[in-house]
Specification:
Layout: E1 2-5, E2 11-12, E3 18-19, H1 22-29, E4 42-50, H2 51-65, E5 94-96, E6 102-105, H3 107-115, H4 119-138, E7 147-151, H5 154-159, H6 184-191, E8 199-201, H7 204-207, H8 226-240, E9 247-248, E10 257-266, E11 273-280, E12 287-294, E13 296-298, E14 303-305, H9 308-326, E15 332-337, H10 343-355, E16 360-369, E17 385-388, E18 393-396, E19 416-424, H11 428-438, H12 454-466, E20 477-478
Parallel strand pairs: 4-5, 4-6, 4-7, 7-8, 10-15, 15-16
Antiparallel strand pairs: 1-17, 2-3, 2-9, 10-11, 11-12, 12-20, 13-14, 16-19, 17-18, 18-19
Helix pairs in contact: 3-4, 4-6, 9-10
């Protein structure tokens, strides 16, 4: 067993400048595509909410234009200020809307939903309420929004709160949702896949300082500081509008790599197990979503797996999507999966790769590990701590003490990510370095220390939404529609 510390991956921002931190990089250099004619310099948003939520959200938009101060304390790198909105600051973009792009839902309609005692019936009714107005906004004859903002009232979030609210990176292969229980956010996202632009949810606690969310178990929902909330909201909005806030660094000598994340999800009635696939085409994180075939559990390890032909068809379709996007094929295919690769899966994936004559391939299983390590002193291990166990298995701390923050920003003892190399051309260290970088392509979190790489995180988000979808999803949907 050997251990070493991997360097924190740098990201590329405007002008080709680099920084390890997303927020400081954007403040200093602007988004990666700042000089591109296609960058969203002016983002038009449609808004659907109640009279109260729309009014307070619009007020917050005005406040954010001039910037928000940093959280007071001794953690300036973890809680920087939000620089504001404008042509020469931050994301170098402005947010605009208008009466023709705003629809309000009457409070009486919300009250009627809250009277419904059956959870699934109430969720369905609430989704129909918001979807009708979201769809109406897209039909505006004068102006078309780039992104739709959905601003439900706090009463709906509290009424539909999940029994247990897990950490965003603590997903397990088993579905967190109770059997047959609809999720308001996921069902509305699923239904909105038919709309011509993505939607962005915003909770009242993001923009309204008076909003206090009391969970069903009696505790107060913990909030990020105002500047961090603004960073996360506007960065996600920029990405959904078609922008590239940052990208991974790529050495010109590196092989052009194609990343595929494979995860699994159960249908709402628990009767079937399916595959969700998220593809990251390149270092910009440009990706599309595919729905894989049915999966089944194998008795030997009680994990979900694909049949040989389903694995073949899945990767063949993914490679075709890559070729359509880039008009060429990658030099290397990387498959991240949430369960071990069986021999039949391995054969199916190999067949798809061999048919297009790609010589380099890496099959990697990623999962939580119960193994912990301790550092001399009072602090947890550093993010980037890499422990090589043998030729097949290694451990990586992706969420731990961050040198740039000068602290560990988590609440619990950090977990290790178990990396299993199952047919790889890269070394364990090279794979770990790549995975560490891919954790920084989470467009919903500008703190940059996600536990899972975007390949698996996106695939699991996709599964949460696809399980709420009746019928086949649109082909090659952008990831922006699912996040």
């Amino acid at each position: 067993m050997t251990a070493e510390l991997l360097n924190e991956p740098e990201l590329e921002f405007g002008g080709g400048f680099r920084h390890v931190d997303i927020r400081f990089g954007i403040m200093s250099y602007g988004p990666f595509d700042v000089t591109s004619e296609m960058a969203p310099k002016r983002i038009r948003i449609g808004i659907v909410g109640t009279e109260k939520t729309v009014e307070r959200f619009l007020s917050w938009l005005e406040q954010c234009k001039s910037g928000l101060v940093a959280k007071t304390g001794n953690k300036p790198n973890l809680f920087p200020r939000f620089p504001g909105l404008g042509e020469d600051v931050g994301l170098r973009t402005t947010i605009v809307t208008g009466k023709e792009l705003i629809r309000t839902i009457h409070r009486k309609s919300i009250a009627e939903v809250l009277k419904i005692k059956d959870h699934n019936e109430a969720v369905t009714e609430a989704v129909d309420l918001f979807f009708r107005d979201l769809d109406y906004v897209t039909q505006s004859k004068n102006v078309t929004p780039d992104v739709l903002v959905c601003a439900p009232p706090i009463e709906l979030f509290q009424y539909f709160e999940k029994p247990e609210e897990d950490d965003e990176d603590a997903e397990s292969e088993e579905d967190a949702a109770s059997e047959g229980r609809l999720d308001f956010h996921d069902l509305l996202k699923a239904k909105s896949l038919s709309l011509p632009m993505p939607i962005q949810f915003v909770r009242p606690s993001t923009y309204d300082p008076s909003a206090r969310e009391i969970r069903k178990k009696g505790t107060m929902r913990q909030l990020q500081d105002p500047a961090t909330r603004a960073w996360n909201f506007y960065t996600a909005l920029y990405y959904k509008a078609g922008g590239t806030p940052w990208r991974l660094l790529r050495d010109p000598s590196d092989y052009a790599s194609f990343f595929v994340g494979i995860s699994f999800y159960r249908s709402l009635d628990q009767s079937s197990l399916s595959t969700s696939v998220a593809q990251v085409f390149n270092e910009r994180g440009q990706g599309v979503i595919l729905r894989g075939g049915p999966a089944e559990y194998v008795k030997e390890d009680r994990q979900p797996h694909l049949l040989r032909e389903d694995a073949y068809r899945l990767l063949k379709k993914a490679l075709e999507a890559y070729r359509d996007e880039h008009e060429t094929l990658p030099a290397r295919v990387v498959v991240h999966k949430s369960s071990i690769f069986t021999e039949t899966e391995h054969d199916g994936l190999q067949k798809a790769i061999d048919e297009v004559h790609v010589s380099r391939r890496d099959f990697v299983t990623l999962s939580h590990s119960f193994t912990r390590f301790f550092r001399v002193g009072a602090y947890p291990p550093l993010r980037g701590t890499f422990i090589n166990l043998d030729d097949e298995r290694s451990l990586l701390y992706t969420k731990a003490s961050v040198e740039f923050f000068r602290l560990y920003p988590g609440m619990y003892v950090p977990k290790t990510l178990l990396i299993r190399s199952q047919g790889t051309d890269q070394t364990s260290k090279q794979l770990a370095t790549e995975i560490l970088a891919l954790t920084k392509l989470n467009w919903n979190n500008t703190q940059f220390d996600s536990f899972f790489p975007i390949t698996l995180k996106a695939a699991r988000q996709v599964g949460d939404i696809l399980r709420h979808l009746s019928g086949e999803p649109p082909e090659l949907t952008r990831y922006a529609y699912y996040m």
